[in-house]
Every structure is written in structure tokens, then in C-alpha cells.
Amino acid sequence: MFPCVVICTITLLFPLGRASLPLVINTWPFKDATAAAWDALQSGGSVLDAVEKGCARCETEQCDGSVGYGGSPDETGETTLDAMIMNGDTMEVGAVGDLKRIKNAVGVARAVMEYTSHTMLVGESASLFAENMGFIAEDLTTNKSMNIFSQWLKGNCQPNYRKNVFPDPSQYCGPYKPRATLQPNKMRRHANTHSHDTIGMLAIDQDGHVAAGTSTNGLTHKVPGRVGDSPIVGAGAYADSEAGAAAATGDGDVMMRFLPSYLAVELMRAGADPSTACKTAISRIKRHYSEFFGAIICANTTGHYGAACNKVPGLSQFRFMVANTESDAPLLKSVDCF
Predict the structure, then answer these.
(1) Where in the sequence is the active site (predicted)?
(2) Which of 119, 126, 239, 332 sits between 20 and 30 A of 9, alpha carbons compared?
(3) Which of 88-92, 156-160, 161-165, 314-318 has the highest mean pLDDT?
């Protein structure tokens, strides 16, 4: 590991500077995760090892309360996890959604990839699979997450993510029943930048092998059973060693409808630079949801990278981490939202 971590803030200019491999890039200023991934690469590990170790570090450290255990309780007060990992050489993917009782969600996702022919497992069955694979079952609830849940109950269960239900969700906590007649959707989205901080991580080694991964505890006060964009291939992340990789963070219920990570990789395959690919992917969503909260990071197989974000109240810049041979340490970088 690094004896120290170098931190600086750089506003990206287009086009980007000279490429450098190997490369690790991840969403948000989660520097310890970057350091863990970079150390794995420098120690001879694969890009899959780097992505897994980086995301797992965030799960252990409960990055910003939005990754790992003890955060984002659902309507019942339970914390559940989503994660995925993708091999850009083989196009294999392992993913888990609505995972309960297991802290190392990205590790379970890799186990799905390596020990099954499936792509994704969800809910209680995913948890049982993890236990059978030797993962330790633990309570994901903490005093902090229970306090978040208690305060939400005291606030008449607001915000919530129900619509067209009775009784009025602004007054009661359910049980909810469908309205006889659907009403126009007046639900206000609560785009809190601290309730969507998925870690999305990309790793490219010296030989151009690419991997991507994600981990999150999802949306605070979500409806039980909700799975966001993070474990969805092409939405939360995508990797192809012939083109590059991308990872997204933000309002997953909106972003997953557009597969922004897949789109960005395909744009890079067609020759777009990573910054342009990221911005185009965000623009595609903005045409339909102008006020959505979201950002994306992109990197191609030469080691060029970029990022883009939608400008919303509270988010005028998006910060992310980079480590490559030019720095040999994690650097904090930023891009202006548009």
C-alpha cells in the first residue's frame, strides 16, 4: 500500500492529456479504494483482482455511507446491497441484487461469475448462495442506519418512492393500495447526492485487459426488493477489452433505462474520445429527464479517460479518482457538470 496518498483537484480540459497504462479510475473521492485497486495491479494481480479489491475496500469502509453495510435502509429499515463485476476479455459478468446479510457484495458477484453459469442472483437466494460459497452471514444494520430509519418514520415516511397509491403517502406510512384512478405523477425526486454514491471502478492493465465493477447499498428509503442500476450490465458498468470501460453513479431508476455505460463504451469503440463518450451518454438521459442526478466515468484501452455529469442543485462538479503510472498514486480530479 502507499505510505501516503497524494490528493489534488484538477478540472479536466478537453481533450485530455497523454494516456498512461496501467490505469485505475473510480467514481467519487474514494481514495482508499483507488489505492487498494492500484496496489493490486502493482503487485501482479489481474484487473479483476484490482476492481474487486477496490470495491471491497469501499464496502469495508462504508464509503460515504452509500456503499456497504449500515447505510441506505429500505422501508423496513433493512440494508441490502447491489454489486457487479465484469471481465472485458471474456465478457463474463457476475452480479447480485437485494443481497442480505453479506458484507462483501462484490466478492459474491465475482463468485456468481466464477462458480455459476448465471449472470445475476438476487434477494434471499443470492444470500444463501453466498453462505454456501463460504461468505460469512452478518447483520448489515448499524446504529446509524437504524437512526436514519427512525427519523424517516417520525417524518411520516417522507421522502418515499411510491406513486398512485392510497392512502396519501405524504400523510401516512402505508400499507399502500393502488388508487382506483391513476393520478399524474407528482412525486418529487429527492436527488440527494449522498444517497446515490455508488462506487464504480474501472481497471486497465499494461496489456490492455479491462475490467469494471460496482458496489452500493442502493437508494435510502427504497421500496423493499428494489434493485438499482449498479448490478445491471451496461447500466451500472460495462467493460470490453476491445474498446474500454465505463461506470455510472446517480439516480439508478432513471439511468438504468438508458444503459449509459454500454452506450459510452460503444461510442469509444466507434472512435469517440472518453470525455465525449461520457458527455453523450449523459446527454441522452437529459433529453428525457433534465433534472436527474447522475455522472459517468469512461476510459479507453489506450489509457485515456474522461467523465461527465448532469448539473443539478448541489452538484456543479463531479469528483473522481485516478491512478496511473504518471502519478503512481491516487489523484482526485473533477469535471464541470453541464
Answers:
(1) 198
(2) 239
(3) 88-92
Cell of 267: 461510442
Q: Contact, 5 vs 35, CB < 8 A?
A: yes
Residue 85: which of 51, 129, 57, 37 has the closest Cα? 51
Residues with catalytic function: 198
Strands 210-216 and 165-166: unpaired
**What is the pTM (predicted TM-score) of this model?**
0.92
CA atoms of 54 and 76, how far apart (whole Å): 30
Q: Could you give the maximum distance between any two Cα atoms of the chain, in Å? A: 63
Residues 248-278: tens digit of each pLDDT: 999 999 999 999 999 999 999 999 999 999 9
Enter the C-alpha cell of residue 276: 465525449
Which of these ranges, 128-132, 135-139, 189-193, 289-293, has the smallest mean pLDDT?
Answer: 189-193
Give the model confidence (pLDDT) of 185-217 as tens digits: 554 444 455 556 899 999 999 999 999 999 999
Sorted by where each starts, the structural domains of the chain and their CATH numbers stand as 23-140+190-336 (3.60.20.30)
